Amino acid sequence: STVSSTSSAGTIHSVSGAGSTITIRLPLTLAILTTLVVAAGGRPYALPLGAVDEVFRFRPETVLWVDGREVLDVRGHTLPLLFLRRWLAIGGDCNDGCVVVLRSGDLRYGLVVDVVRGRDEVVVKPLPPRMRDLAGFAGATITGDGAIALILDAHGLYRAG
Fold first, then answer.
1. Measured distance CA(51)–CA(154) in Å, rounded
2. Using CB atoms within 10 A of its CB, is residue 127 exposed (0-12), middle (13-18) or buried (19+)?
3. What whole-number distance in Å separates Cα of residue 48 and Cα of residue 54?
4. Could you tell me whether strands 69-74 and 77-83 are parallel, antiparallel, or unpaired per DSSP bridges?
5. How do residues 18-53 score in pLDDT, each as one tens digit?
6. Taking the CB of residue 117, how many other CB atoms lie within 10 A of it?
7. CB count in 10 Å sphere of residue 91
8. Tens digits of per-residue pLDDT, 79-109?
9. How deeply is 101 buried, as exposed, middle or buried, from its count of CB atoms within 10 A (0-12, 13-18, 19+)?
10. Can you say how many angstroms the Cα of residue 48 is from the centroid of all Cα atoms in its chain?
11. What are the residues whose beta carbons fall under 8 Å from the beta carbon of 4, sequence distance 6 or more?
């Protein structure tokens, strides 16, 4: 016997004893982005992997102050710091986190996060209209474990910080 089912999302065609064929229709506007998923205050955030240069353990005792700004000396180069918890106004200090070195054009800085969860390929969803003008945010996604994560814009994040 043959069974077929069709919907706007795709089709299923099954033949008894021969197997099934499943066809899924994806919209042309579907954008997949490889990201580094980080967390601050227990919530996940996604950073476009193309903007990530390196990641290393954050040690608060190595922070220096230059021209009223917190920086690190990384292999002889001054790296300005932006603390994600502070930027998001979450509160609390990040004393045992990681520094994600981000770049956007000539701009290079360290984003201090609580945890680096790992790499993930995500589907980019646009932000709702009332959030589209918020600097530092590029979209939203659902992570592999089902959590909603905001996608951060490396250049806008620093500019707004």
1. 7
2. middle
3. 13
4. antiparallel
5. 888 888 776 655 688 999 999 999 999 999 999 999
6. 19
7. 8
8. 999 999 999 999 877 778 999 999 988 899 9
9. middle
10. 6
11. 11, 12, 13, 14
Per-residue pLDDT, 47: 97
What's the pLDDT tens digit per position in 1-18? 777 777 767 788 888 888
* Mean pLDDT across 128-149: 88
**Residue 16 structure tokens:** 């008894």
3-state secondary structure the chain: CEEEEEECCEEEEEECCCEEEEEECCCCCCCEEEEEEEEECCEEEEEEHHHEEEEEECCHHHCEEECCEEEEEECCEEEEEEEHHHHCCCCCCCCCCEEEEEEECCEEEEEEECEEEEEEEEECECCCHHHCCCCCEEEEEECCCCCEEEEECHHHHHHHC
Q: Choose among 71, 125, 126, 131: nearest CA to 99.
A: 71
Tokens of 25: 């229709």
Cα separation of 112 and 158, whole Å? 12
pLDDT at 30: 67
Q: Tokens for 135?
A: 């600097």
